[in-house]
Write a structure and sequence with these properties.
The protein is of the alpha/beta class. The protein is 36% helix and 22% strand. The strands form five sheets. Strands 10-11-7-12-6-13-14-17 form an eight-stranded mixed beta sheet, with helices on both faces. Strands 3-4-5 form a three-stranded mixed beta sheet, covered by helices on one side. The protein has a two-stranded antiparallel sheet with strand order 1-2. Helix 3 crosses helix 11, helix 5 crosses helix 6 and helix 7 packs parallel to helix 8. The radius of gyration is 22 Å and the shape is globular. Bound molecules: adenosine-5'-triphosphate and magnesium ion. Magnesium ion binds next to helix 3.
């Protein structure tokens, strides 16, 4: 007996995407549905490479189809196609091949922006995405140190070829200057460098391009907002009240610049002893989540203070590489998933907002 396609699709409607709150049939995630007698095969194409959700959905889908009378076997493949973020407008032209640009910023220096940016980027790559990193800290480039890179940039005759490490494509001012050379420029030149990082670099096809923002508010964010459409900004904060106050200003700035804040990460949230795994709230805990709630933003997660994070940054081996199974690395993985989910939600919402006719 040949099982009917519509009956299979009907059965699959019980499986819902937990982020988009819609069933996977309505979302158009079912691809390559093939039915041969009682054998059913199809692919579920997600919008994020989120790892754990994937297994859960595969199991749910298989179970749902096995319930259909006449079905004897189900083969479910999982794939992910990250959707395009914001489209361009006026002066902001999208980068060809680059789907989502994410800024990692904060209201102040030293809260862990670069640490979060590199671990987040690697976490996204580990889940199967194509990821690039731009070191937006033109005056104090730290990305090459944290990724353990000493790259000599080459060109392909026309454009600069990004350097590669840990599966990431990377560009930094640190590749273009000697280690201790001071970088002294005027504002307009900084804008020029950023423009070059976007337009003169041969970025391949990227799902996410992560920008490590420099400390302080201001010129890089402004320049970024004028150059490319940015899917959103993540704001890194520490739990102290002073950091939270600065973070609120950063969120306000991004909103003003038309860069939607995607969510808040609380870094150095609590201390985990590497020996006894005891936890202590050195700076307090929960302030970041409260701030996110107050500002109407998603809370993307908290990262503990953990000595190997600092050691990994100094040694050029980020924690998600050096200790992938540690609770702190899992916290980075979870933050990456939440970030991917928020981008997917934002692009889904944009695509379904009904167009209003302006007269
Ligand atoms: N969760 C953490 N646990 C332990 N050390 C951390 C953690 N997060 C960051 N650090 C360390 O704190 C220092 C500052 O972090 P980082 O350079 O990422 O901050 P930043 O916000 O990018 O700073 P800047 O404003 O100077 O760019 C680094 O030495 C880093 O290794
Ligand atoms: Mg930094």
């Amino acid at each position: 007996m040949q099982v009917d396609q519509s009956v299979v699709l009907d059965a699959l409607k019980v499986v819902r995407d937990p982020d988009l709150h819609q069933d996977i049939v309505a979302l158009g995630f079912i691809k390559d549905l093939k039915i041969d007698g009682g054998q059913v095969a199809f692919t579920i194409e997600l919008t994020t490479p989120a790892c754990p959700v994937k297994d859960q959905m595969r199991d749910q889908a298989r179970a749902a189809v096995l319930q259909v009378p006449g079905v004897s076997g189900v083969d479910v493949q999982m794939s992910a196609r990250v959707r395009e973020g914001v489209s361009g407008d006026g002066g902001r032209q999208p980068l060809p091949g680059v789907k989502n640009i994410i800024a990692v910023g904060a209201g102040k220096g030293g809260v862990g922006k670069t640490t979060v940016a590199v671990n987040l980027a690697i976490a996204l790559a580990k889940c199967g995405s194509k990821v690039g990193v731009i070191d937006g800290d033109i005056y104090g480039p730290n990305v090459p140190i944290m990724l353990g890179m000493k790259a000599q940039l080459i060109t392909d005759g026309e454009k600069i070829v990004p350097a590669e490490k840990y599966g990431l494509q990377v560009i930094s001012m640190g590749f273009l200057t000697a280690d201790d050379a001071p970088i002294i420029w005027r504002g307009p030149m900084l804008h020029g460098v950023l423009q070059q990082f976007f337009r003169q670099v041969s970025w391949g096809n990227l799902d996410y391009l992560v920008i490590d923002m420099p400390p302080g508010t201001g010129d890089v964010a402004l320049s970024l907002s004028q150059t490319v459409p940015v899917a959103g900004a993540i704001v890194v904060t520490t739990p102290q009240q002073v950091s939270l106050a600065d973070s609120r200003r950063a969120v306000a700035m991004y909103r003003k610049l038309n860069i939607p804040p995607l969510g808040v990460i609380e870094n150095m949230s609590y201390f985990v002893c590497r020996n006894c795994h005891d936890e202590a709230d050195i700076f307090g805990r929960g302030g970041g989540e409260q701030m996110a709630t107050d500002l109407g933003l998603p809370f993307l997660g908290r990262i503990p203070i953990y000595q190997p994070i600092r050691e990994g940054s100094d040694a050029g081996v980020p924690l998600v590489i050096s200790e992938p199974g540690s609770p702190a690395a899992l916290a980075f993985m979870s933050v990456a998933e939440q970030t991917a989910a928020q981008i997917s939600i934002a692009s889904y919402q944009r695509s379904t907002i009904p167009l209003t006719v302006v007269r």
